Amino acid sequence: MQCQTVLPGTECTFMAKNGCVLPEGSCQAVVDNCEGCEKIVEGSIGKVCGAYPYPSKKWANGICNYATHVKVELKVEDIKVNPLKASKKASGGKKK
Known about the structure:
Strand content: 5-15%
Radius of gyration: 24 Å
């Protein structure tokens, strides 16, 4: 269904036959954390997220999973291996 409020003329995934399904009836403007994201589109109320209607809720618990401008770094910790188990695994468990 075509959006008539925030993004006129575009397909809105939050619209139903009887109108917007969002509690407030409209998408919300992006927050400061969203700056630089590729999913931001310009609407009648300013910049809005094209993937999620409430950007502030996505950033409330950490990094937004839709954010294209944030890179997550994974820590790799040293794994300690029992030498006896490692030698058995390397030998393939073969008995002579």
